[in-house]
Amino acid sequence: METLALVISIFSLIIGSIAYIRSGGRQDIRAVERALNERIEELRLLVSRTGDSLVASVRAGYQRSVRAIDEMASLVRGLSEVAVEEVREDLRAISETLDRLSARAAREIKEVKAGMAAAVVEAEESLRRAVEEARARLAMIEAKQQLALARLAVSRNDLVDAESRVEAAISSLNTARSLTSEHMESLEDVQKQAQRMLVELRTKADTLKATLDSLIKRNNLLLAEMSGGARPSRMAA
Questions:
Q1: Rounded to a whole number, what is the largest CA-CA distance in the chain?
Q2: Predicted TM-score (pTM) of this structure
Q3: Which residues, 6 or more positions from 4, have their beta carbon under 8 angstroms from its beta carbon?
Q4: What is the rounded CA–CA span in Å between residue 14 and residue 42?
Q5: C-alpha to C-alpha distances, 10 to 1, 22, 24, 26, 31, nearest whole angstrom
Q6: Which residues contact 60 (CB under 8 A, 6 or more apart)?
Q7: CA pair distance 121, 113, nearest whole angstrom
Q8: Which residues contact 162 (CB under 8 A, 6 or more apart)?
Q9: How confident is the model over 23-67, as pLDDT tens digits?
């Protein structure tokens, strides 16, 4: 906005000077020239500051992307050590993607300097979107891992752990959904898996509740029988 105001001011001075000269005026031409030079110098300094600010902003954007890539790579390494079979291929694929993004960031950040072309700014924005896409993919892999672990927990009748795993999976899916509009079909598929797991958990819980209710009832009957049988024995004594 400040730059635009200066440009308008300079044009106004130029137009005013031309009109003044055409009308025969000569006495104040040096004052007009000085004012024009001052405006041009102000504009030059402003453009320089704006350029420095843009360079700093773009470089900071690249640095954020690099940190995000490094954090995801570390997370992938950790997941790979405990991954279930069904997500191992996904982890290999995302690891390769992160390697490419890391090399790309290192290459492109070298182009960030004063006087850089608009293409460099667009490249930083493109990398940022690619990093967010990778984060979404990784979140979806985490969700699949948690659902697989939830199934194992259900097979052990550890419903508390299973419920916790499904909750973590849904949280990861929400993260993925917030980061990308791509892969919606895959996201929906994993979301349906989570829903099926919740239904299975509820069914399992209902079954266990019915079993527990039956056991409690039988135990109460046994206690009643034992209590009833104990009284005659004491009376006989």
A1: 141
A2: 0.68
A3: none
A4: 16
A5: 14, 18, 21, 19, 14
A6: none
A7: 11
A8: 150, 151, 153, 154, 197, 201
A9: 444 445 566 556 656 666 655 655 555 556 677 888 888 899 999
